[in-house]
Amino acid sequence: MNGNLRLALQKKGRLTDKSLELLRLCGMDIENYSERLVVTARNFPLDILFLRDDDIPEYVRDGVADVGIVGEDVIYEKQIPSIIIEKLGFGRCSLMLAYPENRELKKLEDIVGKTIATTYPKILKDFLKSKSLDAKIIELSGSVEIAPSLGVADLICDIVSTGNTLMMNKLKKSFKVFDSEAVLISANSSLKDENKNKYLTDLRRRMRSVMTARSSKYLMMNIPKDSLIKIIEIIPSLKSPTVLHLAEENMLAVHAVIPSDSFWQIIGDLKAAGASGILLLPIENLIQ
User: Fold this and answer.
1) 169: in domain
2) How far apart are CA 201 and CA 194, in angstroms?
C-alpha cells in the first residue's frame, strides 16, 4: 500500500469520460488509462481503480477503494450501504417506463397486469409497491429495449438520457420511475487513515469549486455611472459585484459572477439600463 487515496471509477460507460474530465479540472495529472486497471495521478496522492459500475459500491464497502464515483441508480439497485458525500452534477438520467409506439399508455394504472423487462428489478419493484400497482417484472442483463419487439415483455423500464435508443427501437418513454446522477460515495462518513482524510477533503474542495464554476459565468460590462444602482438590482451575482472607474468620467466597469442560466433572462434589462461592451466568460474554478 502506498498510502494514496483510492478512487473507484467506471471502467467503460456513460460516466467514465465525465469522471476523468472532472478529475482533470480538479488539477489532477492523469495519463490515458487505456486498458490498465489502476492509474496513479502524477501530482496528487490518488490511485484510480477502473471497475465495472455495478462492482463499485461493493469495492468501496469492502475497503478495496476508499471512495467511488457511481450513479445513484447503481447504489439503490445494489442495496449495498453507501454514504453519498458529494453529488457531482453530471451523468443525470432517469429510469423510465417505455412502451412500443403502436400502443397506448394513457395513465400509470394501465401497466397493471403487464410484463415489464428491466435491469433494475429492485428499483422497479419498490416503485410499483409505492404506487400500489401489480405488474410482472422480468430481469434482463442487457438489451432491454428489444424485449417488446421479441414478445418478451409489454413494456421496459430502463435508463433514459437522450432518448435516442428508445426511438431507434420504436419505443416511447412515459412515466418516470427514478432520477439519478453521478455521486461520490464512501463506506463511512470519515476514513480511518488521517492522511487519506486530508486527501479526500482536498479532493472534495476541488470538486466543489469545479461544480460551482460550471454553473456560473463571469460577467463584465461598461455602464453609465448614474445607472449603477439599477444595474446592481438586475444582476443576480453570487457576491457583491466589483465596480471600477474608467477613463471616461461618467462611465464605470462592473464585473460579477452570475448563475449561467440567468444571463439571457437579464440581458434585455441590462441593455435597457445602458450597459454596453457586455462580455460573458467561462470560469474554470470557483472557490468560495
Assistant:
1) yes
2) 11
Let me know if residue 82 belongs to a domain.
yes
The pLDDT tens digits for 168-216 are 888 888 899 999 999 999 998 888 899 999 999 999 999 999 998 888 9
Q: Is there a single domain that holds both residue 36 and residue 17?
A: yes
The residues, any chain, with a CB within 8 Å of residue 241's CB and separated by 6 or more, are: 232, 235, 254, 255, 256
**What is the residue-wise DSSP string for 80-97?**
---EEEEE-S-S-EEEEE
- The verdict on 16 and 159 lying in the same domain is no
Residue 165 lies in a domain: yes
Q: How many helices (H) and strands (E) does the chain have?
A: 8, 15
* CATH number, position 223: 3.30.70.120
pTM as predicted: 0.82
**Grid coordinates given for 250:** 461618467
DSSP letter (8 states) at residue 53? G
Tell which of 133, 158, 180 closes a domain.
180
- CA quadruple 147, 148, 154, 157: dihedral sign: positive
Residue 274 lies in a domain: yes
Q: Name residues whose C-beta falls within 8 Å of residue 208's C-beta, 6 or more positions apart in sequence.
A: 86
Name residues whose C-beta falls within 8 Å of residue 254's C-beta, 6 or more positions apart in sequence.
Answer: 219, 220, 221, 222, 223, 228, 231, 232, 235, 241, 242, 243, 244, 275
